[in-house]
Amino acid sequence: MATILVDLLSLTGSKGGMEVYTRELYQQFAVQAPQHEFVGFASTEAAAMDLTWFPGRIVDSGISGENRLQWARGELLAVNPAARRAGADLIHSPATLGPHRRDIPTVVTMHDMLYWSHPEFMSTPLYTAPVKLMERIVSRRADRVVTISEASAEAIGRYLSVPRSRISVIHLAGRAIAGVDRDRHRPDQPLLLGTGNRRPHKNWETLVRALALIDPPQRPRLALTGSGPDDPMIALVAELELQPWVELHGWIEESELADLYSRATLLATPSFCEGFSLTPVEGMLSGIPVLISDIAVHREVAGDAAVYVDPSDPAAMAATIARVVSDPALLAEHARKGLDQASRYSWEDTARRTLAVFDEVLTASGR
């Protein structure tokens, strides 16, 4: 048995894919690794959340994961002492950053290198240099770096000079959204669906501009979820006079998401860059054809199951959308291919392979 301190300082309820990863992984650990003791070193926000999915005790760090200065200091300086106090044999930092020093073996999951590869798309440019410095420090201190795609592994090697022998690629998985009924999809009422935050690299602007280029008789409706009242798409939709065709939603309940998944003709992910991209996998698992940007990580994740578009070309994107939503045979083919492709990924496998990394690091350290 090993005691594993889990760095949950980034967990605040607002971090998207990294929080999905942490939750799904540790729910699996509860089943696959009952011999281990897990101690969650949590942000103040996480400590106040429902963490019944975590398979161990939670320690409230007193550190805010939303206060960037507190959070950065906590990652660098507080995690290692917390591990010592817990008598831990291993530290796992599942959200890219971790301790500056460590007295015990450390595994860090680094999801992407977007601050390095695409700094122009980062919504908090003042933090670009500090985050890059922290990523460099953490990657050099970690015994093993886990990452979520071959594309991210290549970037970690290129930007952080981490030897490939210290990087383990373990793909994420998805989940079929509960309550989806694809029989509710109406081919005569095409609906394009996009889900996710409005960070610049998600590229919703190009999707909206593409929609405006489709002739109104052929134009599908568009539903975008995942923003607040200050949604930057509001002004763009008004500028393009697309209000009759576009629904802008905030963060929605699972039942609302199931309704949209049931009615969607295509699930769109037009990102300029990603570390893995969970949304297309979840769309494919739910039987929805997916339209995604033609970038290396999407080719790795979706294979030939997706419809690919140039994320920087709204005219070409518009032509592809109009063609695909009007072709039932093509939609059915991509839905079938998507189910097959998505079945290759499972959280059970993600957890099993991650536990194997923990065991390798513990064995190498003599613990």
Q: How would you briefly describe this protein structure?
A:
The chain is of the alpha/beta class and 367 residues long. The chain contains 14 helices and 13 strands.
Per DSSP, the total helix count is: 14
What is the average per-residue confidence, as pLDDT, rounded to a whole number? 95
Please identify the top-level CATH class of the largest domain. Alpha Beta
Determine the strand fraction and express it as a percent band.
Answer: 15-25%
Question: In CATH terms, what is the architecture of the largest domain?
Answer: 3-Layer(aba) Sandwich
Q: List how many beta strands DSSP finds.
A: 13
Task: Write down the overall geometry.
Answer: globular
Structural class: alpha/beta
What is the CATH superfamily label of the largest domain? Glycogen Phosphorylase B
Helix content: 40-55%
At CATH level 3, the topology of the largest domain is Rossmann fold
For the report, how would you describe the main beta sheet?
7 strands, parallel
Number of domains as seen in the coordinates: 2
Report the span from N to C terminus. 10 Å
As a whole number of angstroms, the C-alpha radius of gyration is 21 Å
Low-confidence stretches: none
